[in-house]
Amino acid sequence: MAAAPSSSKSIPRNPLPEAFEDLRAKFLAFIRVECGLAPNTLDAYDRDLHDLLDDLSRRSVGGAEDITPRHLSEHLARLKTDRNMESSSVIRHLATIKVFGRWLTARGFVKENPAEVLDRPHRWKRLPGVMSPTQLKALLAAPKPGRAEDDGPPLWLRDRAMLELMYASGLRASEVGAVGTTDLHETLGVVRVTGKGRKQRLVPVGKPAAAAIKAYLSDCRPHLAKADGRDRGRLLLSRSGRPLERVAVWQIVKRNAAEAGLKGVHPHMLRHSFATHLLAGGADLRVVQEFLGHADIATTQVYTHVDRSRLKDVHRKHHPRG
Questions:
Q1: Which is catalytic among the residues 172, 246, 266, 277?
Q2: Contact of 232 with 220, CB cutoff 8 Å
Q3: Residue tagged active-site, from 303, 316, 317, 318
Q4: What own/partner pairs with CB < 8 Å and gap ≥ 24 does 203-211 have?
Q5: Are 243 and 234 in contact (CB under 8 A)?
Q6: Cβ atoms of 20 and 53 closer than 8 Å
Q7: At what angle do helices 246-259 and 267-280 cross, to 10 degrees?
Q8: 294 assigned to active site
Q9: What pLDDT, on a 0 to 100 scale, did the predictor assign at position 4?
Q10: What global pTM score does this model have?
Q11: Is 92 a catalytic residue?
């Protein structure tokens, strides 16, 4: 089961040698200024890079010029064996190391990129968890009036609007919290989403989600919004009138999943289910890639391996010897 995200600021870390700390600071400044990455992505890069540099310093690697491909491959192996890290997290570390290696080479810290020979371990990657239509129906129906926490504004309307929007449009936890009231285009039936790297995309919003959002805007959000503008124009608000943070999104999904009798459900499963159900229904892979905001279609292709039942059904119906 996936763990809720946490900030790197709350995790105590060993101090790095001066040479490595200087590299870390310069690299983070580069990806922040030149690449325009979102704060949460920067935190992830920072954590992964610190893990690497701390490991290298413990093995008496003195500087960038001393890093070898073997150092990097052994570091990745230890993440899996010694720290029992999930395969998806190891792959994320590899992505960070790849970017760091290219940066070291481009800036002249090393002559040859030590990360160039590292291969992406496809065999590690687990297929994403996907909910069945029946499970999703139960989750989306879980928010209902009469809950103890709704003593005041009917927060069940907010929860239902959030869940419906996440599934209808395939939004990440960070993306749904960032949706503003002006990002919704009722006439077109789409929502403007700001994803990783601050890239924007337009994604359709289905009728059930649109109806849930309309009910929330009419009967709940006016009771949450304050006159001081603390909502920053965001669509989904907390009881205090502030925008929902990622942790709150996780908590809302977990609470409603428990009420629906579902286990192991986390926000990204709604996104996985969105993509898988679209492809199972016959959607074009490139279209799903655009909806999800994936830069590389290879990232989207993982969903083609999830639902084998449709492939078998097509073969049985259309092959002359099926």
A1: 172
A2: no
A3: 303
A4: 203/169, 203/170, 203/171, 203/291, 204/168, 204/169, 204/291, 205/165, 205/168, 205/169, 206/164, 206/168, 208/140, 208/164, 208/168, 209/161, 209/164, 209/165, 209/167, 209/168, 209/169, 210/186
A5: yes
A6: yes
A7: 70
A8: yes
A9: 38
A10: 0.60
A11: no
Query: Which one of the listed residues 80, 196, 255, 310 is annotated catalytic?
Result: 196
* Domains of the chain from N-terminus onward: 8-124 (1.10.150.130), 133-313 (1.10.443.10)
- The answer to whether 214 is a known catalytic residue is no
In sequence order, what are the beta bridge partners of 204?
190
Low-confidence ranges of the chain (pLDDT < 50): 1-11, 122-125
Catalytic residue status for 303: yes
Distances (CA, A) of 195 to 67, 173, 262: 33, 10, 28
Among the listed residues 214, 230, 268, 310, the single catalytic one is 268
| Marked catalytic residue, from 192, 254, 294, 310 | 294
DSSP percent split of the chain into helix, strand, coil, nearest 5: 60, 5, 35
